[in-house]
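note to self: the first set is below, dont mix up w the second
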Amino acid sequence: MTATKPELSVIILNYNTKELLEDCLNSVKSHMHEVPMEVIVSDNSSTDGGPEMIKKKFPWVTLIEGPNNGFSAGNNRAKPLVRGDMVLFLNPDTIVHDNVFGLTVRYLKEHPKVGAVTCKLVLPDGSMDKDVRRRFPTPWISFNRLVLGKTREYYYEYIPDTSTHEVEAIQGAFFLSWKKILDKVGWYDEGYFFDGEDVDLCYQISKLGYKLVYYPDVYITHLKGVTKGKVAKWKYKVTREQRKKLRMSGVASMERFFRKNLWKRYPVWFDYFVLLGINLFKIVRYVRVAILSSY
């Protein structure tokens, strides 16, 4: 909404979430005065009138149209258009509230050792979205969470969600970083189709020596699960085949993350033991998805 160079570039990836995207953009527009910014929407060939809605109601938004091959590629496609020194990846199923832009941007500027920051994400029922702060999925952490059901370590449940603190991974629904850092790590790894790409990006940023921080002094509302067909109201927007592909992509991401980032940390025999466990989990997930898709 300004001809001056923006300080912040907000990138929103959209696929058939017209109504949610409109609410998101309206909330963004209400708080654009907090930071000089630009907004880029990367649309994945939506058929629900989303692109037309953007052109009519939000002409100040830069719209990229055409097919995207997954979450990573869709966000990365905005890279050539980014003019801000900071980049915020924002989900279309979110509502931005007061001071989110202003205070998170200020926090990143005032803490040069921090490479990425997120705010608190609140679900429609008022609870916190636990995925906003996570540990890297090492074999032990993953075993405790997926097999034993112990999530205390993985979700930092021993730290109050009202406390600002360093974490290993933040969520892609609100992911604020410096463009220069994203350029160094190559933005999102397009080998991930859906799920895991945000954790991988955090891992690459941490490898450069930067910290990642959960900053709950401000918050956004996150509907969550729409793109995966998990929200009943919007389930019709996602076909059965799409839901199956998205659900299975999460397991594929586990294997990619382990092979790419953790393989050399363990003996070879243990690496293959982990891969066996991942593939067993993949079979279980496939059966569950097949059963659910039959209804």
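second set (the one i keep forgetting abt)
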Amino acid sequence: MILAPLGATAGVDVRGGGPGTRETDLLRPENLIQKVHAIVLSGGSAYGLASAQGVMEFLEETGSGFSVGKDPSWVVPIVPGAVIFDLGRGGKFANRPDSTFGYRAAKLAKSVSSDVGCVGAGLGARSGGLKGGLGMASTRLDNGHVVSALAVVNSIGSVINPDTCLPWHESTTRLRRPNASDRRALRDYLSALAVPVATPETSLNTTIGTVATNLRLSKSECTKFAAVAHDGLARAVRPAHLMNDGDTIFGLSVGPGDLILSENEPIFSDPVGRPALLNKVLAAGADMFAQACTEAILRASSCGGMLSYRELCPSAFVSQ
């Protein structure tokens, strides 16, 4: 979950054939709402969308939301969200997030967190038969702007190249090709699950996440930001965007102030400079989302009866 109690400009791009989403239509550039106050990423399939209600309740208590009346307390927090399918994994089918999960998560949210792997929505995630998870990545551009990504990888496709038994996308984690014994263990494990190494399993899955920047963006630009981030998803997870995936990415701008679409606005006075700046942010968003997807698998640990890449291929990890 990403909290933005003061509001953040947002867009969304949904590419998967089986999405589970909430409040995505209002993010269309032509629609009224200009700011969101949180983005919820949850497990529990469609049931898990209820967790966003708890986030709304917390934000209402703190006075954050879209004003709808003369009384300052009359607010409607704008909380879009997306979910992954993880029902029945490692427990009972009825074990799923509800509104109390969202409320507690919002109340305990940190301004900075390094928790990745089997946490939050990543706890029940599975990717190409291996344990999936939650990953993050961030970079600072040469102009000082920051671009970050958060991904929950629960994909039909795999993050791991079957030929090398290494990630498709180059990782910041130091890796080497696993030894023959580990490569065999990985392939035997997937074979036992009836998951061919080179073809997707028939399952219910989804990769969801966000890309964010501190550059001021319009809703249209946030939508483009989210769309290009899907290129990063497709680099890291192969194949992606299938009928049983619900791949959904949100684009967020937490830059100060509002972006005024005016010919007199300084940032629009140069028709070349603005697209060039956006291109850097868009490219970085795709790179960071690919990295976040990869790190989600590399940092996950075995749980819920699902084995992790780290456990199956320990020889791939170079000692620090």
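remember for set 2: DSSP finds six helices and 14 strands in the chain.
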